[in-house]
Amino acid sequence: MDHYQIISGSFQAAIESIAMSVDDLAEPLSHATDLMSGALLQDHKILCCGDGADAALASLFTSNLLGHFARERPALPALCLSTDSASLTAIGTGYGMDDIFSRQVRALGQAGDVLFCIDSALAHGVSLQRAAQAAGER
Fold first, then answer.
1. 125, 107, 101, 122: which is closest to 48 by C-alpha?
2. For residue 106, what are the contacts with CB-CB under 8 A and spacing of at least 6?
3. Are 53 and 119 in contact (CB under 8 A)?
4. Fewer CB within 10 Å, N or C, the chain?
5. What is the DSSP letter of 110?
């Protein structure tokens, strides 16, 4: 099989997957957007995290909030909890990898902030579950 066939097949599969997901994802995404917009309008911030490759997505998301996306606008307050390698390894060494995000949420999160956990693999990692629990406590 040539590279063109592989690439076009991957694009076609992605298009089909997105089309099939619209009905399932439109409502939850709309709710998440409203929640985040409301927090930002009330001078709160977005904390974002993800494990593995999802850490890169979390970084991209917060970078787009801090910078700009699609058009020029003021910077929006956002922190990526997945990118500070010194903190991640210090927390992981001292408390275990399951607490790498929850410890940061407890230190940096405030009432009214929003925690956005990215779990594209649907692995439901313990570190993300504990981060969500810590956010609820804050």
1. 101
2. 134, 137, 138
3. no
4. N
5. -
Structure token pair of residue 12: 């076609």
Q: Which of 53, 116, 110, 112 is nearest to 81 (CA)?
A: 116
Q: pLDDT band for position 120 (50/70/90)?
A: confident
Dist. CA 45–CA 41, nearest whole Å: 9
Q: pLDDT band at 122, cuts 50/70/90?
A: confident
- The candidate with the shortest Cα–Cα distance to 50, out of 62, 40, 39, 38, is 62
Residue type at 24? D
**pLDDT at 1 (0 to 100):** 66
